[in-house]
Design goal:
76 residues; mainly alpha; 4 helices; globular
């Protein structure tokens, strides 16, 4: 096992707010990123959780893909 594998297993350092609290910021974060804006420091703990939690990271990636797809398709 190398350091990268261990880090994936144990998670990264930093304050991790958990799934519920991170879920509250997911929509806002995905909207910002889809618009090409830089996320503020307010999202630091959220990003720590995304690095630590594969399930939430998968949800975020799916939501981000959906938001980008909607923005690219324009108004209906």
């Amino acid at each position: 096992m190398n350091d990268s594998d261990l880090e994936k297993f144990l998670g990264k350092e930093g304050s991790d707010p958990g799934c519920d609290d991170s879920g509250l910021l997911m929509d806002e974060y995905c909207d910002l990123i889809a618009r090409g804006e830089v996320a503020s420091d307010r999202f630091d703990e959220f990003l720590t959780h995304m690095r630590n939690c594969a399930a939430c990271r998968e949800d975020m990636e799916g939501l981000l893909a959906m938001v980008r797809d909607q923005e690219n398709s324009g108004p209906r």
